[in-house]
Amino acid sequence: MAEEWAELFDNFGTKIVSETDKAKGAYVPSASQRYAMRTAGIEPSYGEGKAVCTIGVLFDPALRSMQISYYNAERSGSGRSPEPRIGRGLVQWIEIGDELVIGNVGNRVFVAKEPIAPVGQVFLTDNDGAIVTDADGAFLTEPVTPDLDELTEALEAGHPSLTGNPADLRRRKQLIGQIAAVKKKLAELRPQYGGIGHNNPPPDEDEGAQVSPALDLVDEMVDRLGGELAKDDPDAIQVGRAGKTLRNAAHWLGGKGDLFAEEFAKALGKSLGESAGKALAVAGLITLLGTLVTQVATWLQAVSWPF
């Protein structure tokens, strides 16, 4: 699993929970686990007080986070330097023999138990972000289709997300590439629909005049989506909302093929047959939008599923 953990974390370490870790109520982290915590800005405290912090818990449906104490314990009579230990929530959660993984993503620390395959392994290695096992790790007949509305609503309700790790950056690169394809198609279409419509939404009875504002909305939303995904820590809620708007715009555009032809003919003085070809070009845009919206949903699923 080392390669999979490296995909998820910036730094991580593993260690088998010993009888002493559990019996004394003080887990002794490995050097690599201490390094991951230090990289995230978490250092053990000295003296009487024990520093307390909150860390995330991965792949446990009953627990999303826990409070831990992290402190240096004196080893009486040993002549050795104090030893970092972790207490509170962690020692209540672990059992003897667990292989514990502690890693960081930026300044956030997470803990998980090995082995988590196949559930965790699928999540960590699936390039498309699709979940192909159920909660018990059994393989599904077909991958779960991500639900854009449910995912966005869960995030709006406070469901956490994890971004910035190598797997996330890889998926975002795919998304940004799809955004570029949509922008290219819009640039090809703009001379064709330029001048159509007006700045404000047209009245409902003039549906044909809504073609240009709909395409303008797509242009605005892909810019917003691209800007958010380019951030070090993108707001998953804003990504989901932009994806929903693009999906709705694509659905509307997909049902207005005849209106495209009529609108292009009216604005450009073309025959209905010639302008219908331009409507087909917009159909290509709709296909690209469908792919983009699907990738937005799978990205949201990937960054929010482990919790």
Overview of the molecule:
With 307 residues, the chain is an alpha+beta fold. Helix content is 50%, strand content 14%. It is built from eleven helices and six strands. It has helices at 2-8, 19-23, 31-39, 89-93, 119-125, 148-156, 166-193, 211-229, 236-254, 257-268, 272-304, and strands spanning 11-16, 51-57, 65-73, 83-88, 99-105, 108-114. The protein has a six-stranded mixed sheet, with helices on both faces. Strand 5 and strand 6 form a beta hairpin. Helix 7 (166-193) packs antiparallel against helix 8 and helix 10 (257-268) crosses helix 11 (272-304). The longest helix has 33 residues, at 272-304. The chain is elongated and about 75 Å long. It starts with a helix and ends with a helix.
Number of helices: 11
SS content category: alpha+beta
Instruction: Identify the quaternary structure here.
Output: single chain
Helix content: 40-55%
Overall form: elongated
Any low-confidence stretches, pLDDT <50, length ≥5? 116-130, 192-209, 271-275
> Can you give the mean pLDDT?
77
State the main characteristics.
single chain, about 300 residues, alpha+beta, six-stranded mixed sheet, 11 helices
Would you kindly provide a brief summary of this structure?
With 307 residues, the chain is an alpha+beta fold. It contains eleven helices and six strands.
Topology:
Elements: H1 2-8, E1 11-16, H2 19-23, H3 31-39, E2 51-57, E3 65-73, E4 83-88, H4 89-93, E5 99-105, E6 108-114, H5 119-125, H6 148-156, H7 166-193, H8 211-229, H9 236-254, H10 257-268, H11 272-304
Parallel strand pairs: 2-6
Antiparallel strand pairs: 1-5, 2-3, 3-4, 5-6
Helix pairs in contact: 6-9, 6-11, 7-8, 7-11, 8-9, 9-11, 10-11
